[in-house]
Protein 1
Amino acid sequence: MKKLTRLILAASVLSAVPLICAAAGPTPGLYEYTMKMNMPGMPAGAGGMPPQVIQRCLTAKEIETKGYGSPPKDSDCQVKDMNESGGQFSYKIACTKPQKMDGTVKGSFTATGITMDMTMAMEGMTMTQSTTARRLGDCKQ
């Protein structure tokens, strides 16, 4: 179970803060991300987990370089097949350690928000995650 928790964390880190964006993408600033995860067989009512909310400062450099959150140290997760057009994006996530996991991500962005849906397959189970992000204002120094 500990391995599975770390794997879910790796997937969440990679997907929770996607910074796929073009020149007319999200505006730098403080964003609030709401993540809803569902994994059949997990506690919290029919596989649904309570939504997780984080706040994160999205910098101009991150937007320019299309950065991603870093996976945990024991993970080799990689982002592949990235596509972006007209405010829509998609990519794949592939990991082999700490265990095999493959996923697809699709979403959209505006100047003040990001929405995305992710599906991850691992060890005979599938996890889905929906994320929305909205700009709250400027980052606090």
Protein 2
Amino acid sequence: MSAFAQPAPRGGGVARRARVWGPAAVVFALGMVAWQWLLPALGVERYLLPPLSDVLQAFWDNRSELLRGGWITFQEAVGGFVLGCSIAFLFALVLARWRPLGSALMPYMIAANAVPIVAFAPITNAWFGTLSPWSKVVIAAVLCFFPVLVNSLRGLTSVRPESLELMRSYAAPQRVVFARVRIPNSLPFVFSALKLASVLAMIGAVVGDYFGGSTEALGVQIVSAVSLAQYETAWAAILVASLLGIAFYAVVALAERLVLGWHPSIRAGVE
């Protein structure tokens, strides 16, 4: 080793993370300041957006009910996430194996995805019952299904021809091609869709609660608080839902980093 060689600075990763997250932290701080002081100064009415301190106080006063409702809604979101993403990935495997079938079914899947979820929610309540959590699970699953299907199918089919030719030269059966080439190639696409689906699942569970459910569920609490002009409580419930959605996204992102540590995009993010 040359006498002039210097070890790489250890603080490079910290500096890079500061550059990446610094602007977001500044925007977050400015947003909180505007919420607390600027918007009330501009005359924004309480029913539109109460001051942040009032929302936090409402959360503290009703923390037991809000956290219990958040847990109920979060379980519905996770159930819908697992159900919708699992079925979507299985469908993607089938459509990638038999491409003409995918071409025949995709227009109908697009049309089904275009149906507003608020129109679908009353139907699931009729199927499973208004108080059943399964009606909310199904709504969350429907929201998760299409993005996971499309991204998984793209990952399974956008394989380098050289890799497929190599597997053919070994006379590998299709199950081996999928296990060794197509599925590993699809994982970055799948995890991108899973991160989006984690947010959509939480939205679906909350929206499903708007049309009826357990009186402790988060969406029901939001509707009830607004009907009673308790806007601070309603925004506190929305804040709980947002934090749960962020936590859900973070868990999926962590799983992506653990599973895809070998992938160049993940390695570049770690370094």
Protein 3
Amino acid sequence: MTATILYEGNLRCNAKHLQSGSSIETDAPTDNRGKGERFSPTDLVCTALGTCMITTMAIKANDMGIELKGTSIDVKKYMVADPRRIGKIDVAVVFPSSLVLEEKDRIILQRVGDNCPVIKSLHPDIELNISYKW
């Protein structure tokens, strides 16, 4: 098992990662009867996308002798109705201005980011807009 999830009532859950013992709380968003005081489940999908992209890029970068520390990712989720689902995700990967890379290294890292496991797991109907700011 990966996690155990406890429904706490009031549209909130607590998910515990079994290997590490760390936990994440979720709340329904304000536009779907929740208080929006925690990540929503769909927020976590989009957050997983960003963290997967930078993690896989950092693994490759380490192999290339490149440090990506300080890189940030901004993620924006757009919901659609009927059925209610994630319709679009904007992802902006922003590298530190101090990071100077050759074009070939940028291409390699971008290809890794564009092919992370979460991207490959998302439904093809979700529109992805991914930008890399070097």
Protein 4
Amino acid sequence: MNEACPGAIEGKAQPPLPDRGGPQGGRPVIDRDFWRTEQAGAYWELADRLRETSPVFFNSHDNGYWVFTRDRAVREIYKNPEIFSSESLWPWDPEPSYRFVPTQVDPPQHIKYRRIVNPWFSPRVIDAAEPDMRAICRRLVEELAPAGQCDFVTGFALRYPTEVFLSVIGIDPADAVLIVPWVEDFFRGQGGDPGAHELMEAALDSIRGYWVDAVADRRNDRAPRPGDLASHLMHATIDNRPLGEQEVLDMLVVLVLAGLDTTRGELGYLFAHLATHPEHRLRLIDEPELIPRAVEEALRYYTIIFGDGRKVTRDLEFHGVQLKKGDMVYGLVSAANRDPDVYERSDEFVIDRSANNHIGFASGPHRCLGMHLARREMQIAVAEWLRVIPDFRIATDVPLLERGGGSMMTLLSLPLEWSGR
């Protein structure tokens, strides 16, 4: 029995998967895009069915690519960047027109860039920032509470992590009104929707233009501005040389894209779960020490990364498939995080799960830079929301919808209601 997706967050039934015989070794073939809007939960149901049907598929959609569904294969893809390059992260876009640094940079150069920004997102820095993060969260929750209802996505899940992230990197949180719509447009296009590709390109141009102006404003500073990441990058060095302006811009663009969309998505699914599981809400109120475990379980069970793409650097056999140099592969993270070979009660949301080595933040050298920040944001959000609004529910019988899993999944809307003050 799957206890995590009853009622309003249940996925709709899907047609059987085609099995027409693969291009090599009789492997199954599917023809499926992953960008379309679906009823919430549909993409995890799809991932589960793919995993239990076969450890590997060939997806003939778009340019054609191999899909690996089990935990072991997905982890091996992550941990072997010399074979599975991050040059392209999305198999439907094998020759991207953009370059995100350090996300699309392979080792050994990758770690050199990471060392420049790692200190900004370390556990020590997040510990120091927690009082400010909690103050932002508490203010937003207390502003919402008297109304007795809100769209959680727009009223909280977008606002809270955006204010926190922009504050952490030294940007005026008021600029969120500019940046958030650009991030939304980027991910709508990057997920594979051919109708949104121009929106994606325009969004990238706008985000880059924002940082071009910010860099220009800081260009004549003789020393880094305290608490200002853009200024820090402009004074950083790599291989005994200053970072070039294009490198600085590439790094700032990807940090914004990664920092503003991910936590929003996870918060939406976690609070949809809590809204439909009062027994879990009550347990977290009575045992707040379980909140970190509940957050980890949300990252495992409600993984917003449907899959991660990589480009093959040389011919090799991998889990029974003969891969060629230049092939694209797609590690189905959402399937791997519910792999019954790895997790007991893998198809359940276990709120006090103790052993939880999930890959919700990816794995290997490209593991999420902001994972400590995202974890803390979510933990604070649960604690502060339940402190003020302990009893809430989904305020509609209409099925919730989610953005396609091609890029990162997120609820489009989450109407909640409670007794106002």
